[in-house]
């Protein structure tokens, strides 16, 4: 005989199981691989492999993730797309995350809307301690790829975004990677310049989605006429350590010099 207590007990068990599922989903180490081609002409005879990760927040970068990335590709540059930290995250954890990511390759970083909550000077010291470069509304050359530049903006939350300064020297490069934490800046950048690759995070893909519905759009990789835009679901979580329908992710983008090939796979 089905009783009210049994119904309540079953409902509670299902709810607990569902929460555990969302918690475990948020801890997955998904690496999404993308390929894009650029016209030949750059005097570099190898591929450019970019590792991009954003919205780490409270998560820990572990050796299993590094091994997964390194087993697939030799990484040329590492880009942290903001929200490496948030209020309450111990500086030791942030430092360890930076140290591990710097093992993959030269490291570049842009500010997110939560990073300064742990202290701007502290964040600057940690990034530079491990040889990283903070892109403060500026562009620099990609190591080993002199025809490529990487440009990064501050986050709008700082009220310090300066797109003109970010793009001031980009014309000296054949190709440019534009990095900003907040994807709403893509449109403002494109009014002045069309980067080869644009990277952002911030939205978490909605983090918890019911079917196709979420508070934010799900992350996407779009390739059109040899130019790509990536908005990542991000690697960590904010507010609740739960995910549903918007898997955590980081990315390896492989840029090939030559024929047009578009591929994407999910591991």
Description:
By secondary structure, the chain is α/β, with parallel strands linked by helices. It is about 25% helix and about 25% strand. It is built from 6 helices and 13 strands. It has helices at about 5-25, 65-70, 90-100, 120-130, 165, 185-190; strands at about 30-40, 50-55, 75-80, 105-110, 135, 140, 145-150, 175-180, 195-200, 220-225, 225-230, 250-255, 265. It has a 7-stranded mixed beta sheet. The longest helix is centred in the first third of the chain and has 22 residues, at about 5-25. The model is unreliable at about 260-265 (pLDDT under 50).
With strands numbered from the N-terminus, the spatial order across the biggest sheet is 5-4-3-2-12-1-13
Helix content: 10-25%
| Uncertain runs | 260-267
Q: Given the C-alpha coordinates, what overall shape results?
A: globular
Largest sheet: 7 strands, mixed
| Class of secondary structure makeup | alpha/beta
Our Rg estimate from Cα atoms comes to 20 Å
Strand content: 25-35%
Distance between the termini: 46 Å
Taking all residues together, what is the mean pLDDT?
90
**E-strand count:** 13
- Quaternary organization: single chain
Count, helices: 6
SSE sequence, one letter per element: HEEHEHEHEEEHEHEEEEE
């Amino acid at each position: 005989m089905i009783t009210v207590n049994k119904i309540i007990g079953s409902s509670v068990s299902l709810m607990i199981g569902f929460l555990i599922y969302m918690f475990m989903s948020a801890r997955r180490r998904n690496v999404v691989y993308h390929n894009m081609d650029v016209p030949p002409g750059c005097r570099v005879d190898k591929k450019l492999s970019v590792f991009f990760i954003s919205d780490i927040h409270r998560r820990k970068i572990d050796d299993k993730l590094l091994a997964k990335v390194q087993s697939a590709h030799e990484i040329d540059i590492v880009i942290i797309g903001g929200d490496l930290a948030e209020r309450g995250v111990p500086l030791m954890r942030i430092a360890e995350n930076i140290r591990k990511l710097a093992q993959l390759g030269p490291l570049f970083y842009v500010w997110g809307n939560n990073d300064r909550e742990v202290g701007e000077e502290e964040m600057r010291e940690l990034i530079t301690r491990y040889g990283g470069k903070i892109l403060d509304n500026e562009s620099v050359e990609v190591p080993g790829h002199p025809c490529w530049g990487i440009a990064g903006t501050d986050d709008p939350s700082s009220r310090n975004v300066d797109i003109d300064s970010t793009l001031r020297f980009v014309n000296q490069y054949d190709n440019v990677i534009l990095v900003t934490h907040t994807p709403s800046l893509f449109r403002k950048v494109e009014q002045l310049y069309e980067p080869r690759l644009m990277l952002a995070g911030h939205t978490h893909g909605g983090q918890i989605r019911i079917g196709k519905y979420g508070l934010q759009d799900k992350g996407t990789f779009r390739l059109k006429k040899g130019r790509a835009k990536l908005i990542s679901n991000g690697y960590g979580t904010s507010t609740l350590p739960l995910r549903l329908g918007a898997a955590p992710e980081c990315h390896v983008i492989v840029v090939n010099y030559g024929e047009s090939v578009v591929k994407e796979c999910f591991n």
